[in-house]
Amino acid sequence: MADETIYFCEGRKYPKLLIDNYQFQIHRREEKKTRWRCVNCNKTKCTARAFTFGKTVSVHDTHNHGFPKIDSNIVLVPQLVKLIRKHNTVQEHQH
Ligand SMILES: [Zn+2]
Predict the structure, then answer these.
(1) Domain named FLYWCH-type: which ranges (predicted)?
(2) How far is the CA of 54 from the centre of ligand 1 (A)?
């Protein structure tokens, strides 16, 4: 777990999250946690997810596509967070 910079975008309708050039759109706000899912979740059935709680972000990023194009007129706000990466690859070995 290390401090890393991710980006928030307020967007016109829905806020977005930018992590490693991948975009996430808000899925559900909960009391202490916000769930995000990949913007390509419908288009390519991408199952990548992210969760934000306070200054901690956990990302489950097994994307099945390339980087989505970033709208040039969106304003990205950098934020330093604790980033937890969870790769849900089937090939991963369990210890
Ligand atoms: Zn994706």
Answers:
(1) 12-65
(2) 23
Provide the domain count of the chain.
1
How far is CA 16 from each of CA 52, 58, 82, 92, rounded to the nearest angstrom?
12, 15, 18, 29
The residue range of the domain holding 81 is 2-66+73-86
Query: What separation in Å is there between the alpha carbon of 16 and the centre of ligand 1?
Result: 13
Collapsing DSSP to helix, strand or coil, 92 comes out as coil
| Segments of the chain scoring below 70 in pLDDT | 1, 11-12, 88-95
**Rounded to the nearest whole angstrom, what is the distance from the C-alpha of residue 23 to the centroid of ligand 1?**
8
Cα 22 to ligand 1 centre (Å):
7
